[in-house]
TrEMBL record:
The chain crosses the membrane at residues 119-142, 162-182, 203-221, 227-248, 255-279. Keywords: Membrane, Transmembrane, Transmembrane helix. Pfam families: Yip1. This is Protein YIPF.
Length: 314
């Protein structure tokens, strides 16, 4: 009677001989797939069925992953807006450098955003710019009072509200109008491919960063130097917008492209000049001390000559 070791040896020997005769055979050496006689089950075939099963499993896995990606949270939930702030410090700094150093042929959206626009950078850039505008505007009056005692300084807290409303409305409403116009022009010129609304807002938000150091430099009490710093900041910021929008508007007619870019630069210039004239006016109305004025007396108010002569004798 054969022992268990001998039976196992004969089983492996049979399987080896069968594999030598048919090299394409596939063995299923699992304990739960033993034949009733205790022999190993050997499946003879090309093995293509197993490869097909693997491909089916891979395709099903890919389909499941795509379905998970498509299941985005609703816009009224916190998770929907969380992805807009999913950036790290290195990405934000890279986008700030890209906005400070615009050059032709270097698209800010393609080279820096890379289909991942964020709202973190634009939000804090606008908040910082509004705060610095209000603070430096008050510091300008305080420093002017030390040079001219006739200026009576009082804190102007309303400038904070004005700065916040101005900066955030510009950084949101202007990109919204621009995006809507480009979407409308896409229906006229089918080759145009406008940026998304989030990309447009992101471009405008980062373009305002250059005004933050410029506003601090406006504390220097030299008018021509202030205007020079403002012109340089405006040139850098507007150039970044033009170079970013040019790949989109160049598919349109020359007139439409020229008008659109001119309006973009003009609105940017109005923002810079408005901030300079409103927040950095040295002598605002109502903060000047009234100057002594000479009053002319009417003849009826003059003293009589007799009183004048009597006063002269004393």
């Amino acid at each position: 009677m054969a022992t268990a070791d001998e039976l196992t040896f004969h089983e492996f020997e049979e399987a080896t001989n069968l594999l030598v005769e048919t090299p394409d055979a596939v063995t299923t050496s699992r304990s739960d797939q033993l034949t009733p006689q205790g022999h190993l089950a050997v499946a003879v075939g090309s093995g293509s069925s197993y490869g097909a099963d693997d491909e089916v499993e891979e395709e099903s896995d890919k389909t499941a992953l795509l379905q998970e990606k498509k299941q985005q949270p609703e816009f009224w939930t916190f998770g929907y807006y969380q992805s807009f702030f999913d950036v790290d410090t290195s990405q934000v700094l890279d986008r700030i450098r890209g906005s400070l150093l615009p050059r032709p042929g270097h698209n800010f959206v393609r080279h820096h955003l890379r289909n991942r626009p964020d709202l973190y950078g634009p939000f804090w850039i606008c908040a910082t710019l509004a705060f610095i505008l209000a603070v430096t505007g008050n510091l300008t009056l305080l420093l002017a009072q030390r040079r001219d005692p006739s200026i009576h300084y009082s804190p102007q807290f309303h400038k904070v509200t004005v700065a916040v409303i101005t900066i955030y409305c510009y950084a949101w409403l202007v990109p919204l109008a621009l995006w809507g116009f480009l979407r409308w022009r896409k229906g006229v010129r089918e080759r145009m491919g406008p940026y998304t609304l989030l990309e447009t807002v992101c471009v405008y938000g980062y373009s305002l960063f250059v005004f933050i150091p410029t506003v601090v430099l406006w504390l220097i009490p030299v008018p021509w130097l202030q205007w020079l710093f403002g012109a340089l900041a405006l040139a850098l910021s507007a150039a970044g917008l033009v170079f970013t929008l040019w790949p989109v508007v160049r598919e349109d007619t020359r007139l439409a492209a020229a008008v659109l870019l001119s309006v973009v630069v003009l609105l940017h210039a109005l923002l810079a000049m408005g901030c300079k004239l409103y927040f950095f006016q040295l002598l605002p109305p109502g903060h000047l001390a009234p100057l002594p004025q000479a009053t002319s007396l009417s003849p009826s108010m003059l003293p009589p000559p007799t009183l004048t002569r009597s006063m002269a004798t004393f």
